Amino acid sequence: MKYLRLNLRYAPAAQHPMHRFMSESDAIDRELLVAWNLTAETDITYALFYVVGDRESYETALEAVDTNESYDLTPVHDGTFYAYLRERDTDRFRRFRAAFEQPSLMAVPPLDYRSNGMLTFDVVGEPASLEAVLDQLPKGISAEIREVGEYDARPGIFTTTLTARQREALAAASNVGYYEVPREGSVADVAEALGCAPSTASNHLRKAEARLVEHTVG
């Protein structure tokens, strides 16, 4: 089974209002589309997002989206929540969806929206159909193929519960030897790499580690 791992970059005019909000605000770090349902209401899509960021800011921005019909926001952890949305389709979204509406193709969730106008996800299917996708994307969306080959992904999105700063803290800790045995780096070294106070670096590490442990042991 072949797959493409795609990076789609949206020009500002082609971005959904909520994706544009991510690009213009620091309130939302990531938004992952984990499930969707296209119903008999041909112009309505139901979608479930997992969002890392400030819920109140997200809701304020969502209220201003003209195509929004209804929504429900459910907190998960501090700084993360689910957004269950019912939204009217736009012409651009229908053209985007049509590029993937081939019997042999499947977009594999989650679809990872980033604050730089980027969308990353995997598509599996027959090689000829995979190649055709890139030619059918709407204007304003450019595609970059990150990987191609036999599909062998292990499902799981536990790392998406981390904020960008927490991931940076873990990466910095690894780089300075904080997780070596015996330990080679200190919290002060992590703080220096991050450009913050040791207490702040320690807080980032504790929260990140707590979330990873929770998802590992249940």
Low-pLDDT regions: 155-160
Strand share of the residues? 25-35%
The end-to-end span amounts to 32 Å
* Biggest sheet: strand arrangement: 4-5-3-2-6-7-1-8
Number of structurally distinct domains: 2
- Calculate Rg over CA atoms: 19 Å
Write down the overall geometry: globular
Helix content: 25-40%
Largest sheet: 8 strands, antiparallel
Return the average pLDDT rounded to an integer. Answer: 84
Number of helices: 7
Q: Look at the helices and sheets and give the structural class.
A: alpha+beta
Listing every helix as H and every strand as E from the N terminus to the C terminus, the arrangement reads EHEEHEEHEEHEHHH
Quantity of strands, as a count: 8
Description:
With 218 residues, this protein is of the alpha+beta class. Helix content is 34%, strand content 35%. The protein has helices at residues 17-24, 55-63, 91-99, 127-135, 164-175, 187-194, 198-217; strands spanning 2-10, 28-38, 44-53, 68-77, 80-88, 106-114, 118-125, 141-150. It has an 8-stranded antiparallel sheet with strand order 4-5-3-2-6-7-1-8. The two termini are 32 Å apart.
